[in-house]
Design a protein that fits this description.
By secondary structure, the protein is mainly alpha-helical. It has two domains: 30-132, Arc Repressor Mutant, subunit A; 134-163. The chain contains six helices and three strands, in the order H-H-E-H-H-E-E-H-H. It has helices spanning 12-43, 47-59, 66-72, 80-89, 111-132, 137-157; strands at residues 64-65, 93-97, 105-109. Helix 1 crosses helix 5 and helix 2 packs across helix 5 (111-132). The two termini are 24 Å apart.
Length: 163
C-alpha cells in the first residue's frame, strides 16, 4: 500500500472503483430503508429487531451469548443493550445465565419471539423477492459472487477472516 502522504494520480480504474462504491452505498441505503419501512408499517418493528430474532433462530434453542450476538448484529453496538432490554420486555427473547460462568448470559428466543420471527421472515423474503426480482437467477448469482469477492478483499486487507 502507498504511503499515506503520497498522492496517486486518478486512473480510469480508480474512478470506476469510486463510482462502484458510491452506487453500492446508495443502493444499500435505499434497500435497507425500504425494508425498514416495511417492518415498521407491517410489524410495528425494526430491521434491528428482525436481525436479533434471525440470529437467535439460527442459533437454536440454546441461544447465544450476548457478546456473540452483538458481534454479529447489523445494529450499532451501543444500542444492543437497550434493544435487548426492550425485546425482553416485549416477551420476544429472554436472558439465561450460563451454568459454567456467572459473568456470561445467553440470549434465547421465546415462543412468542419465534412466532413473530416466522411472520417477519416470510414478509422479509417476499419483500426481498420484490426488490431483487428484476434480476434473473444468473444475475443474482453474479451479484452475490461479486459482493462476496469485495467483502473477502476488505476482510483480507483488515486481517479478518471472512464473516
Amino acid at each position: 500500500m502507498d504511503a499515506p502522504d503520497e498522492i496517486r494520480p486518478f486512473t480510469r480504474s480508480s474512478k470506476q472503483s469510486l463510482r462502484a462504491w458510491l452506487h453500492l452505498i446508495k443502493c444499500s441505503k435505499r434497500v435497507e430503508q425500504a425494508i425498514s419501512d416495511l417492518f415498521r408499517s407491517r410489524h410495528a418493528s425494526s430491521l434491528s429487531r428482525f436481525d436479533v430474532l434471525a440470529h437467535l433462530e439460527h442459533a437454536g434453542p440454546d441461544g447465544m451469548t450476548t457478546s456473540a450476538l452483538a458481534q454479529r448484529l447489523l445494529a450499532s453496538k451501543g444500542n444492543i443493550t437497550r434493544l435487548l432490554d426492550r425485546m425482553i420486555a416485549d416477551g420476544l427473547i429472554e436472558r439465561r445465565p450460563s451454568e459454567e460462568d456467572r459473568r456470561v448470559n445467553y440470549v434465547c428466543l421465546t415462543g412468542t419471539g419465534m412466532e413473530v420471527f416466522r411472520r417477519m421472515a416470510a414478509d422479509h423474503e417476499a419483500w426481498s423477492e420484490e426488490i431483487f426480482g428484476i434480476l434473473s437467477d444468473r444475475e443474482l448469482e453474479q451479484l452475490i459472487g461479486l459482493l462476496d469477492r469485495v467483502r473477502a478483499n476488505v476482510d483480507q486487507r483488515r486481517g479478518r477472516p471472512g464473516a
